[in-house]
């Protein structure tokens, strides 16, 4: 629920749910089933509801927020007195005894039913990782982790993914890659772990442990800005991203890791 992960939800919702028509339509004409469903940790429902109310947001369509809860989490009420005018009643989905949310969502896709599981990962604050998998057919699997310095708790769900998306917030960059570097390797590693984040090496080690087929690094810290585009020879930013990929790939040992960028597409072939 950190700001860099949730603030964009509000503008996304406002766009996909569309502004209300003028004059306001009869409520009975609005689709009863919400076209947009959010799933997330405790507090997400209250967050969306509060921002919508404080900003006097109204939309043409409805939304619903389902929360993934542990037995210790407080319930966010969903009675009609507290619902936002465009909000539907959400589900409170409590994890199993093993701390996992098994198959909390499923939807028929073009080739197979898609099932989603979730599990806890270690960060400064409660955080989740998600597993998207085909229930039949080729049974491809994608694992997307949130902020973490140790994702071992989700390994039972995450084994043998076709794609692993793992954060790599910071890394030690040698001076032969970026001559302006002044930080020492041990200082970088100590601080990144203290802040609850991962290095490319940690991401690569986890990818090796779960035997991932592909590895994409995301959540690169602002200390390491994206390369200039179009790419050009001698760009230090590009060299730094290549170093992120090199470190992760070396720790992984099963392929070449890639640093994510906006609108990136990854192909996951259907097994023959």
From TrEMBL:
GO terms for molecular function: 3'-tRNA processing endoribonuclease activity. Signal peptide: none annotated. Coiled coil: none annotated. InterPro entries: RibonucZ/Hydroxyglut_hydro. One of its GO terms (cellular component) is nucleus. PANTHER family: ZINC PHOSPHODIESTERASE ELAC PROTEIN 1. This is Metallo-beta-lactamase domain-containing protein.
